[in-house]
Design a protein that fits this description.
single chain, about 250 residues, mainly alpha
């Protein structure tokens, strides 16, 4: 009696356990976006608060804030572009190498794939069968996944990464800039402190939720770090303003 493989039911996925190959990549993008916004909040807030410690001129604060926003966004985009380009070039080179090896030495590659699954605990017979079936289905994808843990469909565009990084930074940076410019002078620093620390608590919590770590610990860590940055730059601004240098 034979069994039709197509009639075998596929087990349902457990809730909260998506198995698509691109899920980890989407998590990385989301986490990078949250952290990029966090960088925009801290760096621009530290700049405008520091300047506000030295001068009450809204024009000067605006110029400094916009300069920090534009410079920071470009820096983030450039850094992400260079980083992702290097990673993408390496992955493309590995894919080309694997493609060449599959064309030149298919038997050796099949034995290598079987050996990988055998090293994970499968019996030699089962490992060989798995390697054969995966090779028949998509040899390149099987080797990329088992050997290198990469997928052709998950290659990230450096331009997309750069744009996303700059956008996330800009979104975060706008918040402290608006907070300090739209608040009356006697309260602008205090309000900016409060707005920024609340925003950092939210981004810290989101980053922890995405990564599955402790939300409270992450929020406290990022809030304390942000508060120290703001206090340091505001203190320096006060000293420079009192010294008469600015």
């Amino acid at each position: 009696m034979t069994t039709d493989a197509t009639a075998i039911p596929v087990p349902d996925q457990h809730p909260g356990e998506p198995h698509q190959g691109s899920f980890a990549q989407r998590l990385n993008w989301l986490r990078a976006g949250v952290l990029g916004a966090n960088d925009g909040i801290v760096s621009v807030a530290a700049t405008v608060v520091g300047v506000a410690g030295a001068t009450t001129s809204p024009q000067v604060i605006l110029i400094a804030g916009v300069a920090a926003l534009v410079g920071g966004a470009i820096s983030m985009a450039l850094g992400e572009y260079v980083s992702v380009s290097s990673q993408s070039d390496s992955e493309k080179a590995l894919i080309a190498k694997e493609t060449r090896e599959l064309a030149e030495e298919p038997e050796a590659e099949l034995a290598e794939l079987a050996g990988i699954y055998q090293s994970k605990g499968l019996s030699p017979e089962t490992a060989h069968r798995v390697a054969v079936e995966l090779t028949e289905h998509d040899a390149l994808a099987a080797h990329l996944s088992a050997e290198l843990n990469i997928s052709e469909s998950d290659l990230v565009s450096p331009w997309h990464a750069a744009f996303a990084s700059a956008l996330a930074f800009t979104v975060g940076a706008i918040l402290p800039l608006l907070a300090i410019l739209l608040t009356p002078e006697p309260w602008r620093v205090v309000v900016t402190f409060v707005v920024v620390l609340v925003a950092l608590a939210i981004t810290g919590t989101l980053a922890a939720a995405i990564g599955g770590s402790s939300r409270r610990r992450a929020a406290v860590r990022v809030v304390v770090g942000g508060a120290l940055a703001l206090a340091a730059t505001y203190g320096i601004g006060l000293l420079l303003g009192a010294s008469g240098l600015v």
